[in-house]
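During the reporting period the student researcher (J.K.) took over the structure-prediction task from the postdoctoral fellow and processed the backlog of single-chain submissions. One of the processed entries is reproduced below for the supervisory committee.
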Amino acid sequence: AEGWRSVAPDDVLIERPMADGGEGTLDAIARARPDARRMPLRATGPDGRPVDAHWLLLTDADGSLTGVVELAATSGLTLIEEPLPVDAHTVGLGEAMLAALEAGVDRLVIALGGSALTDGGAGVLSALGARLLDAAGRPVARGLRGLSALDRVATDALRPPPAGGAVILADVDAPLLGPRGA
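J.K. obtained the following C-alpha cells:
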C-alpha cells in the first residue's frame, strides 16, 4: 500500500492482511480474524532447541473449531543458524498440530512455508505418534540421517486427523514424482 500510494496518492486503497504460508501467516490470519485466540506452545525447534511459538484457535460460523499452525513458527529457517543442519526436523510442527488436536479442533489449517526441514515431514509423523524404525526395529535419528536408515513407519499409534480434515497452505508446487518432481 505504501508503494502504491507513492505513485498514485489519490487512489483509495483497502488494505487486507496477506501471507504466503510462511513467516507471518498466523499474524495475517489473526489480523483478519480478531476473534482468533493465540494458543501458546513450547515446541521442539528444527535443531532440537525449544522455541516459544503459538497456534491459532478459530471458532467458525457453525461453532466448529479450526486450529491453524505455522511451520515457520516451529520448524522455520529463522529459528536456526546457517548453514542448515543436515538433521533439521519438523517435530515442532507435529507438536503444534498435536496441541491443536488435543484442544479438540474439528479442522486443521497447516501453513507450510519458510521451512528448515530436511526430514520430509518425518518429525511431524513422530510427534503425532508414528514410530520411524530401521531394519532392526530401532527408532531412527531425527532429520536427514534418520531417513537414510528408515526401513518402516509403524502407524498403529498415529493420531488420526480431525473429522473436518486438514488444509495445507503452500506457496509452491513441489511434486514428488514426474518430470518436475524432487
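The committee noted the following: The first helix runs from residue 2 to 7.
J.K. will present the remaining backlog at the next meeting.
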